[in-house]
Amino acid sequence: MKGILFPGSKKVVVREFPRPRPGPGEVLIEMRASGLCGSDLEYLFNIPEEDRGKPYLGMIAPPDIIPGHEPSGVVIELGPGVRHLKVGDRVAVYHISGCGTCKYCRSGWQILCRNKTTYGFDRHGGDADYMVADEKDCVILPDNLSFAVGAYCACGAGTAFQVTRRLGISGLDDVVIFGVGPVGLAATLFASFQGARVIAVDVNDERLDLAREIGAKHVINPLKTDVITEIKRLTHGEGASVTIDCSGNPDARVNALECAKTWGRTAFVGEGHKTTIDPSPQLIHKELTLIGSWVYSIPTMMELFEYLDRFKLPLEKLITNRYSIEDAPRALADFSSGKTAGKAVFEW
Question: What domains can you pick out in the chain, each with its CATH number?
Answer without folding.
Answer: 2-155+296-347 (3.90.180.10), 159-292 (3.40.50.720)
